[in-house]
Write a structure and sequence with these properties.
Helices cover 26% and strands 34% of the residues. The protein is α+β, with helices and mostly antiparallel strands and 98 residues long. The longest helix has 11 residues, at 15-25. The protein is globular and about 35 Å long.
Amino acid sequence: MYVVVNRIRVEPGRGEEFAAAFAESMSHLEGVDGLRRSTLLAPSSPDGEFMSTMEFDTRDHFHAWVRSDSFARSHAAVVDAEVVSANAVETYDLHTEV
């Protein structure tokens, strides 16, 4: 399994707005080949980051999605630049699962 994690720093007081827009953007993920699961994790502290996770069958499935219309639609206008102040994408290969 190939896991993509996007750490997203949201401006203070804009978390609800961001989460609602992000949830709407996730509607474009229906039927993406090789996508097992996509989540948005909300910070448990006011100064924490949101984390988006996506689990794909393979790295190739992820890269195919990045080149797809689904990717373009899901990223079309999630939120404006005034809401998200920074983000960082990291990728992982699943090592161990229980």
